[in-house]
Amino acid sequence: MAVARTRSVALVGVAGRTVEVEADVGNGLAGIHLIGLPDTALSEARDRVRSAVVNSHYPWPDARITVSLFPASLPKRGSQFDLAIAVAVLGAAGVVPAERIAEPFFLGELGLDGRIRPIRGVLPSVLGAAQHDGDVMVVVPSGNAAEASLVPEVKVVPVGHLRDLVEWLRKGEIPPTPEAEEPVEPPQSGMSPEVDLTEVVGQPVARRALEVCAAGGHNLWMLGPPGTGKTMLAERLPTLLPGLELDHALEVTAIHSVAGVLPSSAPMMSRPPFVSPHHTATTAAIIGGGSTIVRPGAVSLAHRGVLFMDEAPEFARHVLDALRQPLESGRVTVSRAAGSVTFPARFMLVLAANPCPCARAEDQAESCTCTPTVRRRYLGRLSGPLLDRIDMKVTVVRSSRRELLADRQFVETSKTVAERVLVARERAAKRLAGTPWRLNAEIPSAALHADYRPPAAAMRPMTSCLDSGALTARGLDRVVRVAWTLADLAGKDNPGEDETNAALGFWLGVRS
Ligand SMILES: Nc1ncnc2c1ncn2[C@@H]1O[C@H](COP(=O)(O)OP(=O)(O)O)[C@@H](O)[C@H]1O
Ligand SMILES: [Mg+2]
Ligand SMILES: [Zn+2]
Questions:
Q1: Structural domain tally of the chain?
Q2: In this model, does residue 79 exceed pLDDT 60?
Q3: Higher-confidence position of 360 and 495
Q4: What is the pLDDT of residue 193?
Q5: SS3 assignment for 453-490
Q6: Is-contact 378 313, C-beta < 8 A?
Q7: pTM given for the model
Q8: Which residues have CB less than 5 Å away from ligand 2 (the ion)?
Q9: Pocket around ligand 1: residues whose beta carbon is below 6 Å from it?
Q10: Of the residues 195, 232, 395, which should be mutated to test ligand 1's pocket, given the most ligand atoms within 8 Å of the CB?
């Protein structure tokens, strides 16, 4: 009887957890038994591993082989354990020295011909392996090498074929780690890099709202007739945002890696994502889901960036209502029969809406024939509890002829606004130093009341709104957060009555 052990990584949401893989070659009826994998994945892995070994011209043990994956409680769906299983079997069979496979982590799917195929979620898997003390070595498919190399202080060994890996393990000569590639900015979905705020004519209120959103990480609703520039404005929000700091870039990249949407040539996501799902999107597409492997949805792909829902009332009601949990907590839990998975989902929500379903108000109000009831019902799809979580609501009106004819050279560029946003964000980050938060929108209610309460005089404008019921407790928190951002933009140490008044105006915003 011979036993060999090695390691791999399982993904729970976007967290990588160590899995011990043990192979035992012994007496008994020839065959391979896998313990600790779900049934379907089990039989598929068994077939792939056996074919890959045989087609790489190594002897497959003519004995009873038992492979166990620990801990059994971890969800181990997917094919990333193939490589570790193959290596453990070859170790137990004496084809490769067992002591050389005990320490490294092996990640990769095997093709029937022995090729090692790229997998989803390499970055979070390598991050998981990196949590172990001492020197960590991770063997990954060559197709994932650039992504794996984003993790500092880990020895990444890319391999393309099982044969190369076995020869390397036999000789004990570790191939050199490839140079980490310079992170290149990937194309951001839905946003062309050339857009600029200068292209938007007029709309001073919406512009200001975008700037405040960008500075504090707030949510925004824009209501207005078709053709007034709502979509244009929303698409220019990313141009006001600073690049992601390294820890956030890794978080965002990990989510996109698990979703399988990371470009292999330029793996690091260094810009905030901009995600703009179509209004026909399903709950699974927005929130996350899938039958076997749970994948992150749009709310998680927009983590640390912008989720733009254009023509918001056209989305299914249950999709809109499902946004409430991530808006409140910054994370989303997807429940499945096999268990639930939690993904990060802290995004700025931008909603755009026409006042009625006909979208015909192109030139005059007369061209729209929708009754007040139809209009009310249309906007009513955006429920009270959802709108309660939108910090700022603005009405976008048609630009006047004077605005359209005004000299464009005085229009501010995205760069100018982005510079003010950055200064405001730095003020907030300095105040929030030592806390887990960097933006005002992230401050939880309890901390807001305990540590970041504006002076009493500044709170005065809110009292009558609270008394009349126009402002909810949740709304009050959102007004205070926006007031802090307005103070940061104004270079003040505390929000005054001007800031809370303006924030209250943004909160009450659209009255339809
Ligand atoms: N404020 C504006 N400034 C410049 N162009 C505008 C403006 N509003 C609308 N447009 C023009 O009209 C088109 C439609 O604008 P869009 O942003 O899609 O409007 P909405 O989303 O409000 O229906 C734009 O592509 C642009 O050419
Ligand atoms: Mg539009
Ligand atoms: Zn209408």
A1: 2
A2: yes
A3: 495
A4: 63
A5: CCCHHHHHHHHHHHHHCCCCHHHHHHHHHHHHHHHHHH
A6: yes
A7: 0.87
A8: 231
A9: 200-203, 224, 226-232, 352, 399
A10: 232
